[in-house]
Amino acid sequence: MVLVIGALVLSFTPILQVRAIEAASTAHVPSSDIIRLSGVGVGTPLITLDQEAIRAKLTQNPWVLSVDVGWGLDGTLHLNVTERAPYALVVMGSQDLAWYLAEDGVWLEPSDVRPTGEVDMFTAALEKCRADALLLIADVPQTVNPKAGAKTTDPSIEGVLAYQEGFSPEFAQQVAYYRAESESSLACVLVSGVEISLGAPRDIDSKEVVIDALLAEFPNQLTYINVRVPSHPTYRKLDSENVAPGTGVYGDGGEETGDGSTREGEELPPEGEYGEDEGEAQG
After folding, report:
1. What does pLDDT average to over the chain?
2. CA-based nearest residue to 171, from 190, 195, 194
3. DSSP result, 171-198
């Protein structure tokens, strides 16, 4: 009993209390918010601090990925926050709002990107993504309903993240944006301007191998590739084989998209071969 009473008395002496709290601001969470959200105040007995409870309170903020909690012998509590970074900008189906999405699929907050009289929402979002090195996800279903701090559960957006994770870093960096109308009809457009029909997120490695092979075989000529069924890919390309790199998605570099002319489509080739395409392959 004497020991218990002694411990309680010591816990409320200044030397065993929080005497100061230090927290460095992050890009989206100021130090004052970090301290407030922690729920800890000066004078709190160190013996009563619950590190997991502090982390749980702070990670309620969608920008907070993790928190390191520690204290020194001088009674200073240290809160070091690691912040989520925006990974993608998702244009809502209403075409008047876009949300930031983290790489782990957590919704962060609405962006300030808006359409204007001269620039539509897609173009404004594409320019924002280029400036901030973000991935653009467009044409999402109307059912997508973001909530800050919640993880996306939409199959089409989860499919986009699966593709980006499954592609090699070199190829993923070539993707300018995704069209995500549904999980089974996912498509991406490369910075060069080539549109790729991907389909559902499976056989990702095989699809990348086929895309790379076609791009290498027909440099600056392809406008469209369909790898929904990677063993039976199809493509569209320009008539001329003597084409120079064109403007691409951003209008200042990439592969020639030309006047859209293609050669006549052919039947799907046997497995392992490539063929020109007039329409979508199913898969």
Report:
1. 85
2. 190
3. HHTTEEEEE-S-GGG-EEEETTS-EEE-
pLDDT digits (tens, 9 = 90+) for 194-234: 999 999 999 999 999 999 999 999 999 999 999 999 999 99
How many other C-beta atoms can be found within 10 angstroms of the C-beta atom of residue 226?
26
Give yes or no for a contact between 100 and 139, defined as CB atoms under 8 angstroms apart: no
pTM above 0.85, yes or no: no
Tokens of 187: 């498509």
Place of tokens 């992050």: 26
Q: Which domains does the chain have, with CATH numbers?
A: 2-83 (3.10.20.310), 86-276 (3.40.50.11690)
pLDDT band at 138 (very low <50, low <70, confident <90, very high): very high
HSE-up (13 A, CA, CB side) for residue 221: 17
- State the CB neighbour count (10 A cutoff) for residue 109: 14
Amino acid present at 135: L
Report residue 128: phi and psi, to 5°: -65, -45
The DSSP 8-state label assigned to residue 135 in this structure reads E
- Extended beta strands in the chain, E state: 20-23, 64-71, 76-83, 86-91, 98-102, 107-110, 135-138, 175-179, 187-190, 195-197, 222-226, 234-237, 275-276
What pLDDT does 142 receive? Answer: 92
Q: For residue 257, what pLDDT is reported?
A: 35
